[in-house]
Amino acid sequence: MRLLLSALLLLTACAGRAQEAPAPAPAQAPAEVRQILVMLHLPAPHFRPDAAYGANYRDDAGRLARRRIAEALAREHGLTILEGWPMPALNVDCYRMAEPAGAEPGKIVEALSRDARVDWAQAINTFSAQASDPLYPVQPAALQWQLGEVRKAATGRKVLVAVIDSGVETDHPDLAGQIAFQENFVDGQAYAAETHGTGVAGVIAALAGNGVGIEGVAPDARLMALRACWQVAGGATRCNSFTLAKALNFALMHGAQVINLSLSGPADRLLRELIDVACARGVRVVGAVDAASADGGFPASHPGVFAVAADSSRQLTAQVLMAPGRDIPTSAPGARWGMVSGSSYSAAHISGMMAVLSELRPGLTLPQVRSSIVLQPGGINLCATVTRLTGKCTCVCVEVSPPRI
To answer: Where do the catalytic residues lie (predicted)?
Structure first.
């Protein structure tokens, strides 16, 4: 298998896929300043003239009034307003503010949370990524999930998947034409193609049958490339509460059916509230398990999230799904491909699977989706899951009972 993989990687490089192209320079992380988020409650939509706005402040007739409240709060507590962002999915305006030097941790947040003008306030938390085409034969999912057979039933056609991650190389040979939206939510940085986001996007929806690279689990899905994370020196990927919340709000306001969160960090109220909205709307939210965290880390620990770990993991709860997560070939910046491992890429497999299931049965509730998944030792039997949903056997089938829907 190693000889086959080496030969295929060499073949890909020799085919003119810019193997010698240098990796993109890592973007610089935002300066380390203790920051907080302050949420100001908006009037109900039918009581305000700006109810139709979406991702920014254009035509927001009430913006100045809310800005004045934010400025007053900042003066009273010695804060500096860095940025404001409307989040109509939660009916709040969210302001990112810097605390003054020497402020006691948590003291200002506590005071703001008691202020009648404030819906709630919180610290900004940091999150980390859990890191017949030539390479298709060595993709673990190709054999384990019988992808060639599954595609006789569904390919994720027209399902919108939000990849909330670092930047995706949207003109990569395996991703060109797959991107429905490209947005940048990292303040002070231009959109950049980065390793983690490009790899996650490839696992989900790389083109099939284009003669190069890999094939995504759902090659006919449409991607939202939402850059809420950035690549730092050494290759690690970081995000924070505010950047992730902006991206989640955008995904919800623009009709994402699946949201991939291949990252983990501490429990976070703002992100939890946005995920609650997603779950209430039936959006399939997928999160990567952090093996170093007792509860799997957040957002994987959220009860409505499909928590995913690599199929080599041990000591997992029954609610955690397992998917390929070791030695996965996928897309990389510079029109290249590479090998990756980690629950980030396991989560990407499940997001691709969710796109396939959403094409087949878009109206299923989240509990119905979960109950339809057929498990076997070592992971998911995707063929049997598709058979359970459709009643038609498209591959080497096992007898399965229909889901209780």
So the answer is: 165, 196, 344
pLDDT in tens, 243-264: 999 999 999 999 999 999 999 9
Residue tagged active-site, from 77, 172, 196, 349:
196
In the predicted model, is pLDDT for residue 198 greater than 50? yes
Active site residue 372: no
Query: Which CATH number fits the domain 35-44+60-123, given the four candidates 1.20.58, 3.40.50, 3.30.70, 3.30.530?
Result: 3.30.70
What's the pLDDT at 392? 74
**What is the distance between the alpha carbons of residues 95 and 82, in angstroms, rounded to a whole number?**
8
Nearest of 327, 300, 309 to residue 378 by alpha carbon? 309
Which DSSP string corresponds to 260-309?
A: EE-EEBS--HHHHHHHHHHHHTT-EEEEE--TTSTT--BTTTSTTSEEEE
Which residue of the set 344, 351, 358, 372 is catalytic? 344
Mean pLDDT of the chain: 86
Sheet containing strand 80-87, edge to edge, reads 80-87, 92-98, 35-41, 120-123
Residue 196 annotated to the active site: yes
Active site residue 41: no
Candidate list 93, 119, 165, 174, residue with the active-site label? 165
- Average pLDDT for 184-207: 96
